[in-house]
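Journal club side-thread
Mid-discussion, someone asked how the predicted structure for our own chain would compare to the paper's figures. Pasting it here so we can look after the session.
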Amino acid sequence: MPVIALAAAVLLLLLAVYPPLPIDLAIHDLQRMALTLLAAVALPMMARPARGGARVQVAALLMVMLLALLATPSWTGLALTLSWVGLLAVASAVYGAGASRPVAVSALWGWAVLAMALVYTVRTGAAISAAVPQGVIYLSQSFLGFANVRHFAQLMPMVMPLLAAGCLPPAPGVEGALSHRAFRPLCAVALVAWCVLLWLNGSAGAFYAIVLALAATALMAGWHRSWRLLATMAVAALAAMVLVQILNAWVPVLSGVQKTTAVEDAGRLEIWRLSVSALAQQPWLGLGPGQYPLQVAVRPAHPHNAVLAFAADYGLPATVLLVALLWRWFSPLRLARRLRAMAAADARWPVALTASAYGAFAHAQVSGVTVMPMAQLLLAVTLGLLLAAVKAQDAAPCRRLRRPEMIMAGLLGMVLIGAVALSWRQSCPAAGAETQPCHQAPSFWSAQAITKGP
């Protein structure tokens, strides 16, 4: 079993079942440190771009990001820049693992996503059941592990298409863990449960992202390869609607949720207007990584748009290079050619991964998918698996590293993590310290305006 796939699956489960820790750390700080550990594992396993054009694009992007960091140096900027490099390493290593062991890696990730979905379903159901007798359901406390209820919705466009694919029968002759007789019914239960959670969560962005992703995937893959996935999602949504109404007739869940669901920040259009105005003053290298909450707005601490967030941190040239790379590997024209060349029986997981990736791309334009660590982990692994599933030719596994090299890379990663984790400081800016609740956090990850979650 490839190490990176196993490490990503284990981390996904640990972040879902983690116990409350009696230390003064925010939830996102813990998740980011865990993701850094995975990135350290992925670095020596990266696949390198095989074509010169892709190598030049990646090198140019990293160079512009470095220039933006040097223009406004800070621990936060270093953290954010290294986190982008780490996510690139995770996606690249997962691609290499998925290309070399497609059945094993797909089975491992499928079961990991299913287990995570069931864990969150049980934990959220228990929290809601305990809150119903009091008549008020605090969603941010129900969706455990997320300081904001909307952060949980960021996972849904990436998870639900995979659960729907797990409900479908495997291709004839396929053996392995995904063909286990318990996998399909468990996926069906988890999918319906997450449709219920989507209804209770009330995230319009996640709902529209899922719908748009499914429509785009159907256009790329063709009706013959995608209709089963679409039908499964539709049936699960209808079943969830019925269950929600039955549940609400039994206990007033919807009324309790509606009383406690509140948007804490400004509207998206106002956030984007402020972001564009700030970016227009420094378009070439941006405000600097991590500087948005200090120069634009403490709350919300990011633009709630992936393109604007990256542009605010690193400038318009870096954003153009990033979008060009994503288009090179995940453009609809390219994916359409690859998906339509597959037999319908073999396209189940590639189609689902395409829907997950495009759901993440769509939701990232109105949320913090590229900011929150759990969503970052799912996005990096999803993109790596999608590249492997459509047999991308722009990347090839790097040479096999010798054991001493891998040990040295791991030790260097651990030293880096240990050095920054032992450096503590207040994570709130001095100007807002009297109004913003502060907590101690590793300066490596401090966003300087992120308050401690529940």
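Post-session note: Residues 258-265, 393-401, 422-454 have pLDDT under 50 and may be disordered.
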